[in-house]
Amino acid sequence: MNIHETASKAWGESAEVYERARPGYPPEAIDFLHELGLGPDSDVLDLAAGTGKLTRALIAAGARVTAVEPLFAMRQMLQQRLPEATVMEGTAEKIPVPDGSMNLVTVAQAFHWFEADAASREIARVLKRGGGLGAIWHVRDE
């Protein structure tokens, strides 16, 4: 599995620090995802899910969530804290779900780590017809 080397070094051993330091997502971000297909009974892929900061909000919206995360420490924390999510090892360039199986793919704080062409093809492959991609980032308000 091809994991971005810098991301692996930065976060591979510090899941607890990441979980404590990274803020959650505001209601406005989640409202945006509703416009893209998030809702009760939707199938959502949270790609590069980390420790599940966005995954929590997706589950709270009633979605069936598959969280894909390449880093073991992050994935382990995610599984422990959110047993209602299906947690899988994988990358944006090789997503371990069937073709046309997701209403929505979300990416929070991670799209810049992806090989854009390969990831875009994989995201398109797993989306159902009419499905959406929601990529969100925190922006520091100074």
Characteristic key phrases:
142 residues, 5 strands, globular
Reading the helices and strands in chain order gives HHHEHEHEEHE
The secondary-structure class comes to: alpha/beta
Order of strands, widest sheet = 3-2-1-4-5
Radius of gyration: 14 Å
Q: Give a short account of the largest sheet.
A: 5 strands, parallel
Helix content, binned percent: 25-40%
Multimeric status of the protein: single chain
Mean pLDDT: 88
Share of β-strand residues: 15-25%
Low-confidence stretches: 6-12
Termini, distance in Å? 38 Å
Shape: globular
Question: What's the total helix number?
Answer: 6
Number of strands: 5
Give a brief description:
Helices cover 37% and strands 21% of the residues.
Topology record:
Blueprint: H1 5-11, H2 15-21, H3 27-35, E1 43-47, H4 53-60, E2 64-68, H5 72-81, E3 86-88, E4 102-108, H6 116-126, E5 127-136
Parallel strand pairs: 1-2, 1-4, 2-3, 4-5
Written account of the structure:
The protein is an alpha/beta fold and 142 residues long. It has helices at 5-11, 15-21, 27-35, 53-60, 72-81, 116-126; strands at residues 43-47, 64-68, 86-88, 102-108, 127-136. 37% of the residues lie in helices and 21% in strands. Strands 3-2-1-4-5 form a 5-stranded parallel β-sheet. β2 (64-68), α5 and β3 form a beta-alpha-beta unit. The protein starts with a helix and ends in a 6-residue tail after the last strand.
